[in-house]
Amino acid sequence: MASISMEEKEKKRVASSSLIAAVFLTSFKLVVGISTNSLGILSEAAHSGLDLVAALVTYIAIRMSSKPADEEHHFGHGKMENISALFETVLLLITCFWIISEVIKRLTGAQMEVEVNFWSFLVILTSMGIDISRSNSLRRIAKKYKSQALEADALHFSSDIFSSGVVLIGLAGYAIGFHYADSIAALIVAIIVIFISLQLGRRSIDVLLDKAPEGIKEKVSRIVSRTPEVLQWHDIRVRNSGANVLVELKIHVAPNLSINKAHEISHRVEESICSEIEKCEVQIHIEPEETLHVKRWKHKGWNRRK
Questions:
Q1: Do 268 and 128 reside in the same domain of the chain?
Q2: How far is 136 from 23, CA to CA, in rounded Å?
Q3: pLDDT at position 105, please?
Q4: HSE-up (13 A, CA, CB side) for residue 100
Q5: For the chain, which ranges sit under pLDDT 70?
Q6: For residue 55, which of 22, 35, 162, 233 is within the disulfide window of CB 3.0 to 4.6 Å?
Q7: Which residues pair with 285 in a beta bridge?
Q8: 18 and 132: one domain?
Q9: Percentages of the chain per state (helix, strand, coil), in multiples of 5
Q10: What range defines the domain where residue 98 resides?
């Protein structure tokens, strides 16, 4: 229980820190963007504004996903993290459409005057510094606890680093007389965010549709094969729920074994799987080994000890 409390504490701490950082960056960029009339900075402000909403959703999702299973949610609340990640994707895509529409207006219409000054560069450099710090912290905790919600937040801050760099170049270009540089920088920001958002959205949908995580089924099969008392194993099914990996499978043991012995074997198999796959929950169905027709155990998905 202590380890679970520590996990929840660390995840909530890093999520709340990201929320505070998003509030500061959104406010700072918005003020400077409006005062300088820079579309590049305003696009960054919009991006950070969506990050603020996403950080808030992530914080709520982290709190909800840590709740244990109950009478209405038998498998827990882990998928709240995946739902929040998908929600973040939608928000980011909406922002990109707005940025692109504004870029088209400026590139095809009258060029608006942009004031490039000390604050223009300070807000972007400050943003990049905070984004680097937050993305590293989020990625570390996300990797440690396999949290897709925190990983999504880390992707947001990482995308901000690249997009801020592009805006910085755009401001420098505008300062030396290339007046389309700011709008072009905003367009590149939108393209970067769209690319990252689609990747994140695809992964979130995969989990929500219970797509089997890559390589886990084969790993489970290899682990089971190391238990000599298991004569056959099949119907391995794997899915994610938030940070948890849920595994189901059937094993065959000798028919003359006692119930206690068969249970002890299944318990050892379960412990072996959980020892090699983090945050894993295993359900094993035990069947007695029988004289089977050769074609049956050669069916796709069946494994028989040689």
A1: no
A2: 18
A3: 75
A4: 12
A5: 1-5, 74, 76, 106, 109-114, 148, 182, 242-243, 291-306
A6: 22
A7: 250
A8: yes
A9: 70, 10, 20
A10: 2-208
Which amino acid, residue 133? Answer: S
Same-domain status, 36 and 161: yes
Residues 223, 143 share a domain: no
Token output for 276: 């090699």
Instruction: Please count the structural domains in the chain.
Output: 2
Per the DSSP assignment, residues forming a β-bridge with 287 are 252
Residue 135's alpha-carbon distances to 14, 22, 62, 159, 228, in angstroms, are 10, 12, 17, 9, 45
- Do residues 96 and 197 touch, judged by C-beta distance below 8 A? yes
Hey, is 303 helix, strand or coil? strand
Beta strand 244-253 with 280-288 is parallel
Element at 244 (helix H, strand E): strand 244-253
Token duo for residue 17:
């820190």
Q: Which has the closest alpha carbon to 240: 208, 272, 192?
A: 208
Phi, psi at 160, each rounded to 5°: -65, -35
Query: Residue 248 belongs to what H/E stretch?
Result: strand 244-253
Round to whole Å and give the CA distance between 50 and 30: 12
Taking only Cα atoms into account, the Rg of the chain, rounded to an integer number of angstroms, comes to: 26
Whether residues 154 and 16 share a domain: the answer is yes
Q: Do 58 and 154 fall into the same domain? A: yes
Do residues 146 and 238 share a domain?
no
**Three-class SS of residue 284?**
strand
Domain at 144, CATH number = 1.20.1510.10
